[in-house]
Specification:
Layout: E1 2-8, E2 13-19, H1 26-35, H2 40-52, E3 58-63, E4 68-73, H3 79-100, H4 106-120
Parallel strand pairs: 2-4
Antiparallel strand pairs: 1-2, 3-4
Helix pairs in contact: 1-2, 3-4
Length: 122
């Protein structure tokens, strides 16, 4: 499992990107998902996906009160699919932050999108 965490300074949110590498990652991912108080049913499903070796998928788990996100990225069949999936999950993060902060501003949204692109796609 690969994992990295970064902060989104202006909004004071934290994002942890977890990249699944093998079925054994369930042990390490469980406490990370619990750290954002993810729904137990969602945790159970995520662990099942890992054990089954699901590819080309991801899940974003959030706790907006704690200002935390966890993105679980499963192995992908190509670099292009990886970009598409990360872009999808990035959009969830953007929407949740903008909604939580009551921001309806095109430029603020664009800056957030740019920042997340830089942090997630490296």
């Amino acid at each position: 499992m690969k994992s990295r965490t970064f902060n989104i300074p202006i909004y004071d949110f934290k994002v942890t990107l977890v990249e699944v590498e093998s079925k054994e990652d369930t042990k390490t991912i469980l406490p990370i998902l619990k750290s954002v108080h993810a729904d137990p049913e969602n945790i159970e499903n995520e662990l099942k996906y890992i054990e089954e070796g699901v590819i080309d998928g991801a899940g974003t788990y959030s706790n907006l009160d704690m200002k935390k996100f966890v993105v679980v990225l499963h192995p992908t069949s190509s670099k292009l699919i990886r970009l598409e999936i990360l872009g999808h999950e990035k959009r969830h993060i953007e929407d949740y932050i903008l909604q939580k902060c009551h921001i309806i501003d095109i430029e603020a949204s664009a800056y957030l999108a740019g920042y997340l692109t830089k942090k997630l796609f490296i």
